Amino acid sequence: KGYFTYDPGFMATSACESKITFIDGDQGILLHRGYPIGQLAEQAEYLEVCYLLLNGELPNAEQKAEFAKLINSHTMVNDQLRKFFEGFRRDAHPMAIMCGVVGALSAFYHDNLDVNDSKHREITAIRLIAKIPTIAAMSYKYTVGQPFVYPRNDLGYAENFLHMMFSVPADPNYKVNPVLAKAMDRIFTLHADHEQNASTSTVRLAGSTGANPYACISAGIAALWGPAHGGANEAVLKMLDEIGTVENVAGFMEKVKTKEVKLMGFGHRVYKNFDPRAKVMKQTCDEVLAALGINDPQLALAMELERIALSDPYFVERKLYPNVDFYSGIILKAIGIPTAMFTVIFALARTVGWISHWLEMHSASYKIGRPRQLYTGYTQRDFVPVDKR
Ligand code: CMC
To answer: What are the catalytic residues (predicted)?
Structure first.
């Protein structure tokens, strides 16, 4: 009694059973409901992947059209929500806005929400997937001082997001470049789910108390924000900016080896061979830059970092490979997404993963998440009155 398995960082603890996502870190395999991530990223649309994660099967043509229609009918947010935006400073980080505004949705959907009712859970999932691009785009528009752009329900999911990000009332002819919409859609798919990572575990833990699901997703967004997790994509671009030129790469890598700095976008708790998402991301990066005719010097920088890391024993011994965030920033930059929005894009795409895990947990019996600890403080001692201390 009183002794528990000590597992800091949950290196060896399975906290739940799940049928959603499988990862074999040694082989570099990632499957959603059995389908390899490479096939999904190349052949499926993001909304099909959402349907798959939520329901366990890919939709047929009719189910796909119905699902898209359902999502499109929930893209608007309550007009009162804009007041929450107005409470933020214009220079607020958009992830701070996301934590606050998504958490605020719990105030709009609380009293009539019964987490024990499957219909209530389903509509919650739909609302979140539908509204998160609207809120994400609003968080960007607010920080640049432009009016919010309403969702257009005749557009595809990624296309609509880019429309809300970049169209302005002064340019009614604005049209989203289909190459960019396709790349955005693929980035969403590559981030859709990743089993029990820190943010998903946070959503499950918060959800295990029966808390309001919008508040749980807000907790997930907060956990994602850190540079060791979703914040890495923003940190990669900052790192590339700091390195500046290819000539400085070798010197930077020496600093990584003396542990002065971390190589952002490298390493993973689970993948010790390669991150299968990074492969598709690099290929997408090449395609997007070629299609747009962009010659980004940061791509050359990133490739030189990768080349050194893959051949230097320091990185090889520690099994440090590029992860999903290493090349995503270069594509997002090419699409025109500002750096501060990179982690917001991750949050947008991961919302389906978070809510799928929340649904899975609530559709079976579960226990409140309650880790124990290894106590290293004082043994019992007597209280000392203030005049005797
Ligand atoms: N740069 C330099 N050294 C590293 C890095 C890195 N990015 N990652 C790990 N190491 C070293 C670490 O110093 C340690 O060395 P030593 O054995 O000499 O002490 C060894 O590799 C093992 O690392 P660890 O810290 O025990 O690994 P972890 O599983 O606890 O951490 C990680 C995983 C992702 C937090 C870490 O690799 C990291 O901070 N990477 C950079 C941030 C990043 O790119 N995160 C995105 C992850 S993928 C997207 C997502 O899931 O959000």
So the answer is: 268, 325
pLDDT at 1 over 60: no
- Whose C-alpha lies nearest to ligand 1, atom 21? 318
Report which of 237, 232, 221 is spatially closest to residue 349, judged by C-alpha positions.
221
Q: Please provide the size of the chain in residues.
A: 389
Q: Which CATH number fits domain 21-226+342-362: 1.10.580.10, 3.90.850.10, 1.10.3720.10, 3.40.1160.10?
A: 1.10.580.10
Closest residue to atom 29 of ligand 1, CA basis: 269
Same CATH topology for 21-226+342-362 and 232-335?
Answer: no
Q: Does the structure show a pLDDT above 60 at 220?
A: yes
| 268 tagged catalytic | yes
Q: Is residue 330 within 8 Å of residue 285, measured between CB atoms?
A: yes
163 is catalytic: no
Nearest ligand 1 atom to the CA of 265 is 44
Residue 293 phi, psi (nearest 5): 65, 35
Task: Indicate if ipTM > 0.95.
Answer: yes
Q: Look at residue 4 in the predicted model and tell me its pLDDT.
A: 84
Domain 232-335 has CATH 3.40.50.2300: no
Query: Do 157 and 312 contact (CB within 8 A), yes or no?
Result: no
Ligand 1 atom with the smallest distance to the CA of 275 is: 48
